[in-house]
Amino acid sequence: MVHQLVSRWTYNAWNSCYLxxxxxxxxxxxxxxxxxxxxxxxxxxxLARVVQPWLTWPALLVLAVGLVWGxxxxxxxxxxxxxxxxxxxxxxxxxxxxxxxxxLAVASLMSLVWRHPLADLAAGEIGPVxxxxxxxxxxxxxxxxxxMWGTWWVWDARLTSVLVLFFLYxxxxxxxxxxxxxxxxxxxxxxxALVGVVNLPIIKFSVDWWNTLHQGNSIxxxxxPGMHVDMLWPLLICTVGFTLGFAALVLARTRAAVxxxxxxxxxxxxxxxx
Length: 274
Prior knowledge:
Layout: H1 2-16, H2 30-36, H3 41-73, H4 87-114, H5 117-149, H6 157-176, H7 182-195, H8 199-209, H9 229-273
């Protein structure tokens, strides 16, 4: 009896974030059913337990190689000197600030359209990680700007739009926790995340649309890179390492959130039994 009660509560809470029953037969299409396969917490935890080491250990190894190569072995720039080494942290952080927000928007879209319960949890865990990388991007950009521009901060188009991105992350985190009803908080945060997507093209093309102090893109998909291969390779390795680390952090936080919700379900089942 207790097992049935726990299973029923866990399913309902997982699909509705606290006791809002979802009729599985109401799923309208095969894609929705496919997406909801991973709404089962046990299935997700089993998959995540297998994937987690394949993200964490490669991330540490690749980061160690990339950072040692970039910070100590790569050549200094003929104009910027050794201060160019900041880019081995700044550029991956900037990339993940935007890429992390894209993943946040995708999770929010899945939450609003398909009501996928895992999407709400994933979005809630992507936000703090993405905000951290955006903060690192802003901090390292300021460290680079002081010797290059003579100031820690300017209201440049690229810098200002990244600062807006940082505030969007913080707003999403705040909205997730601003309501007594977690469902309302998740919906409000998802809408903010989707509206904030308009800022991403501004970040990307700000150096092309406006005359800014920030340098243009050194790496593009359509042209040759604007740096020597002795700098390009450690930068790419650092980017891969930080990306794997980002994914590992989000997955670990999501696993913890799932287990926390399952424990809360067990405690509520015990309380109902008492």
